[in-house]
Amino acid sequence: MAYKDIKFAVSLYSYQDNYYFKRLDFEGAIAAAAGSGAEGIEVLGDTMIPEWPYISDEFADRFVGLQYRYGVKGVCFEHWSDRAMWKNKQLTDDEMFERGVMYIKAAKKLGIPMVKLLHEEHIGPKAIAGYKLTDYGIIERLLPVAADLGVTLALEVHTHDGVGADYQQKYIELAERTNLPFLGLAPDFSTFSYCMSTADIVDYTSRGAQKEILEFFRSKQRGAYFANVPFVYEAVSAEIEKMRPNDVTKQAIQFSMHMIGRKPPFDKLFKDLKDLASKLVYVHAKFYDLDENDCPDDMDYPRIFKALKEGGYKGYVASEFEGNRRMNMAGWVDEIEYVRRHQAYMRSLL
């Protein structure tokens, strides 16, 4: 496979705190992404388009100019797909369909070829209580609209059991059955997280957790992964209890077990990724913190990229930095530098 088939982008979500605290505006975020070496950008309409949900001709023209000025292309438009956007009601299926059409038309107007959306099963087969998203029926209705406008729907996947589960493959089958190749899966690297990130340790320590216990817990998770055996909390729980964890420390451990707990072995997760790589339409390279070699410290990026390359993935891999949401609780994190380092590291894997 020619490595040129994989290109790199940055989700402007990575600069969320810089944007929120007005250190960067929309153009500044695009400039930061370009400065990292990225070829593409993922745009968040809800967050960074001042007139959203409207897009004027003036803004669309400005966006064309910004892409030309900084040498990047808009490759993906974000759609949070949230039925619970209002406090007092859940949006109906028809309202969700209308919102989906709005995002597709917005992407078309901006010249962005893809809309990435969360869907009902993005973290597993069971819906989150009180938090409904776009489901299969709505996606089935949206697909002809997307195909007519030439916009691909990329379904974000965060599941513990990877991209090979039947409840995810049915979307690929929908595209094949309708002969409308404008729908596909977009895995997020968080699926492959094997331990608590140091970003979470920083976050929970700032809230009162005991750092030495969380570092011990993380070391046991890492040891299990590199020994290629499942991590079983019960095997270390007695030692942790002897260290007298406080409530915040227990919450941190519970959070980690919820985030990375899974049944399939990692070998299967990587095999499924390789088997489906050629059918994927987009990839989110999630990361929280970087180690001394600039590798995300809770995911096996070399194995992930090996699976993508050998499986024949052709498309963008987008940096999505979320360590800011954790580490900024304890002090300002340089989002721009983190993304630059992350982009350079991913390139080294090709």
Short description:
The chain is α/β, with parallel strands linked by helices. 47% of the residues lie in helices and 13% in strands.
List its salient traits.
47% helix; TIM Barrel; 13% strand; eight-stranded parallel beta sheet; 2 domains; 350 residues; alpha/beta
Description:
With 350 residues, the protein is of the alpha/beta class. The chain has helices spanning 16-20, 26-35, 45-48, 57-70, 93-110, 136-149, 166-178, 198-206, 211-226, 234-242, 247-260, 266-276, 301-311, 324-327, 335-348, and strands at 6-11, 40-43, 73-79, 114-117, 152-157, 183-187, 283-287, 315-321. Helix 5 (93-110) runs parallel beside helix 6 and helix 12 (266-276) runs parallel beside helix 13. It has an eight-stranded parallel beta sheet with strand order 6-5-4-3-2-1-8-7. The longest helix is centred in the N-terminal third of the chain and has 18 residues, at 93-110. Helices cover 47% and strands 13% of the residues. The chain has two domains: 3-195 and 264-348, Divalent-metal-dependent TIM barrel enzymes (TIM Barrel); 198-258. The protein contains 15 helices and eight strands.
